[in-house]
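User: Hey, my collaborator sent me this sequence without any context and asked if I could get a structure. I don't really work with proteins. Can you help?
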Amino acid sequence: HALQIAEREIQTQADIDLFFAWFNKGTSHVPLLEYADAASAYDYAFQLYALLPDETRRPYRMLWYQTGPYWAYYYTGRYQDVIALADATLQSVAYGPTLEESLYWKAMAQYALGQFGEACTHMRRAVYLNQHFAAGLQMLQTWGCP
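Assistant: No problem. I've predicted the 3D structure and written it out in structure-token form, which is a compact way to encode the shape of the chain:
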């Protein structure tokens, strides 16, 4: 149902609302495990985002709370895009890289690329920020990170 709403909104919205509609379309594809479709929708949303004229209207905090693009890019093998997105998101935090979800996905992509040391470093940081972060704790154990 959410996917249908997003597709309708894409036909009627403009500017920042069109960005949100495309982002919502991507987010709707993720739980359906339609990662390629999600990645395409997010790609278009981010293209629109880059064109938004008013810097104050740009929702730079989107990925502080929404992780769908990480899922989409990771599960379509776009590991460099995951890392770039995580880096951009982490740089948006004025007081340092403190978003465990972004650190987690960056580590996952690094590990997939064979960057095992960097992956362990970022996963440890994610778990340091949230000692109850079960996914991060599981990956540290699975990877055998010291």
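In plain terms: The radius of gyration is 16 Å. You can pass these tokens on to your collaborator as they are.
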